[in-house]
Specification:
Shape: globular
Number of domains: 1
Strand content: 5-15%
CATH topology: 434 Repressor (Amino-terminal Domain)
Strand order of the largest sheet: 1-2
Oligomer: single chain
Number of strands: 2
Structural class: mainly alpha
Number of helices: 5
CATH architecture: Orthogonal Bundle
CATH class: Mainly Alpha
Radius of gyration: 11 Å
Largest sheet: 2 strands, antiparallel
Helix content: 55-70%
CATH superfamily: lambda repressor-like DNA-binding domains
Order of helices and strands: EHHHHHE
C-alpha cells in the first residue's frame, strides 16, 4: 500500500526512531510501512492519522479510486 508517511515524517524532521517512539512500535515497523512492505493494523493506522492530524485516507492509498 502506498503512503505518505516518509514525507510527513520528514516534514517534521523526525527520524524513523522518533516516529516509532511516538507510535509505540519498532523503528523496523516504521521502515517497513514506509517502504510499503507492511500494512499497519487498523488501530495503528488510526494512531498514525491522529498523530499527523489527518485522515487515514490522506496518508494511505490502497490504489482504489473512490467513485
Amino acid at each position: 500500500m502506498k503512503n505518505r508517511l516518509k514525507v510527513l515524517r520528514a516534514e517534521r524532521d523526525w527520524t524513523q526512531a522518533d516516529l516509532a517512539e511516538r507510535l509505540a512500535v519498532s523503528r523496523q515497523a516504521v521502515n517497513a510501512i514506509e517502504r510499503g512492505k507492511y500494512d499497519p493494523s487498523l488501530p495503528l493506522a488510526f494512531g498514525i492519522a491522529r498523530l499527523f492530524g489527518m485522515t487515514i485516507e490522506e496518508i494511505f492509498d490502497d490504489g482504489h479510486e473512490n467513485d
